[in-house]
Amino acid sequence: MSSITEIMTADHRHCDDAFAQAEEQIAAGEWGKGTALHQAFVTSTEQHFRKEEEVLFPKFEQATGSAMGPTQVMKAEHAQMRQLFKDMQSAVDDQDKDRYLGLSETLMIVMQQHNMKEEQILYRMADQAFGDIADEILHSMDGIN
Fold first, then answer.
1. How many CB atoms lie within 10 A of CB 32?
2. Which domains occur in the chain, in start order?
3. pTM of the predicted model, to two decimals?
4. Which of 9, 33, 83, 126 could form a disulfide with 25 if both were Cys (CB 3.0 to 4.6 A apart)?
5. pLDDT tens sequence across 1-26
């Protein structure tokens, strides 16, 4: 049996790797590769967000009886990151490396803090709250594309 913490933390690492690759290519002025890698990063991160917003968070809120706790904070941070994705895409479209790298630095800080809260607090709380149904919830998240 895998835990929510293990699976979702691994998913964070996958997104982090995609982000680093995109940033590296754009910093090198490789706009073709960088653009494709940026889009792959956004796509994988959006998929991760949907797993949380469509499955994990509602199930957690149901299990704990609270929609005003950590999930509300995580959703607000997702919205903040989505705005940064849009701003970064604009910088990619304009091939504005300095703007992209400035925004990517901001995004990296936001993501690091966000991921730490999820990995150290929310996912662990979810593992406790879900108990034996964690595998069922993980399976439901696997269906998110």
1. 8
2. 4-142 (1.20.120)
3. 0.94
4. 33
5. 589 999 999 999 999 999 999 999 99
